[in-house]
Amino acid sequence: MTLKTKIRLSILTMLVLLLALGGYAFQTIQRLEGGARGIQLANFNSVEYGLQMLRAVEQLEQEPTAAAPLEQFRRALTREAANITERGELELVDTLTQHLADYQTLVDEQAPLAQQQLKLRQLQAEIHRVVDLNTVSFNAKTQSATTNAARARQMVLIFISLSAAIGLVLIVRLPREVLRPLRRLTADVEDVASPGPTHLVPIAKNDEVGAVALALNRAFGYMQDQRSATRIALATERNRLESLVEHLDEGLLLLDESGCVLLANPTARRLLDRSAADLVGHKAEDLSRESELLHTLFQPLLEPIAKPADGSAQPPLLTFRQHGEEVYYRLTASHIVSFNKELRQTEFAGHILSLRNVSEFKKLDEIKSNFLATVSHELKTPLASINLSLMLLQDERTDPEERLRIADGIREETTRLLGMVGQLIDVSRLDAGAGIKLDVRSVALADVVEYAVDTVQPQLQDKELCLETNLPPTLPAARADLEKTTWVLINLLANAIRYSPRGARLTVQATQLPGHELQVSVQDYGPGIPAEYHERIFQRFAEVPNPAGHKGGSGLGLSISREFISTQGGRLWVESAPGTGSRFLFTLPAESN
Known about the structure:
Blueprint: H1 3-62, H2 67-81, H3 89-108, H4 113-193, H5 208-245, E1 251-256, E2 261-264, H6 266-272, H7 276-279, H8 284-287, H9 292-302, E3 317-322, E4 325-340, E5 345-357, H10 359-394, H11 400-428, E6 440-443, H12 445-462, E7 466-470, E8 478-481, H13 482-499, E9 505-513, E10 517-524, H14 557-567, E11 572-576, E12 582-589
Parallel strand pairs: 7-9
Antiparallel strand pairs: 1-2, 1-5, 3-4, 4-5, 6-8, 9-10, 10-12, 11-12
Helix pairs in contact: 1-2, 1-4, 2-3, 3-4, 4-5, 10-11, 10-12, 12-13, 13-14
């Protein structure tokens, strides 16, 4: 008998026992369910109707002339008459019906209250008899159901015991029948694979194990022929590879197919601050636990990250400290594959981790990216104003005078954009260590506020926002750069407009502080900013979670605004909380008399 047949018979036996147990249990549960449903229909409902009639009688004793309890009594009596299931119950229902008719006659004839109360007590006595009759029957049927359940439980226990006994026999016998030839085959294979004279695996039976032994004999014969040639080829290739990587100016680590480091060239050892003995011969998984740097180095091998469908994923970038400054190396993980000519297929042989110095490219890329991002952000606000003005010009309802005013505004914004290009070039020099060029002179904050409000006026009208300005007439002039201060205020107003609900109110206020300082604030009533993000929003490219769903900018405006204000000797900060709006404030030195 083959192993497959033995397993099938064992499973079939357990299946038959399981079906028998399940069928008996199903029939028993169905019978008990039918009995319970019968008890409910026959007795439980009658008891419930009796209780309803008793409650109605109690209400009639308190209010003899009330119509609702009498109607409730009739309805319950009618349902009880339709649910007669016990012997003698029909006579009791007929008696109740007669007593109810007598009571109705007494009520109609306005008989003395004592006669009515006497009739109600007779009704209560008859109702109690109906309830007691159904209660006794309910208890008897429940006892019968309990007896049937106990008998069914005994039968189920017998089935379970029988199934458990047969299952234990199968658990003991089946593995023995299956594993005995496999153990014998394992011992034969180990004997063949051990050092010594070559021999074949004996074939005892013509079953599945015998087929495996035959296949193993063919594989062992081929492996013996290839073992010596493979060892020589692997040694040659390894020596050749080591000679190549030792002379590369890039950091290079060679790992086998199991993740064990075979070679680390001098550049890699210098970057990792490890000797050859610390790396060669160790598993990548073990080395990754020693430090964060090694974990990042071997992460592409241990935790492969799925590439996006567009192939835009960039290899990891590692940062090292050399001669007191940071250097950047691009990590590339490559798989080593070789083509087996005899098998005519590609085989996996290991991994190569390379570290290429990209410090110069990294610095140039950061300067370029920051400059382009800054330019795009600074141009966005005036371009949005121009775009809105052009939409108003295309509107046929716009009168000629308004068209001229809008055209003048577009001309001013275009001139301002040309000037901003030069300013943004200065901003791009910040990352290279150069400062911002300032044209500091006496500036009236009223002029700054007026120009900024005129610039964002189309956006205010588009969202139906109300802007209030509060500038004391005695406010002194500020020592500031007019263009950059105006740019900061425009940026703060644009942010306030973006996050304010339609029809809301904005406030621009300027005050004089002690110590020859002027303070300007922009107040909105948008969603607000949590305290933990008050400093983060002034970082470049910072993103803050916004539950209200507002789409933020590129994360540059507030960073540039703070640099402009700080360079002029002032401060820029925010006061805000979720649900209360935001208030952005900045200070500038006041003009000394």
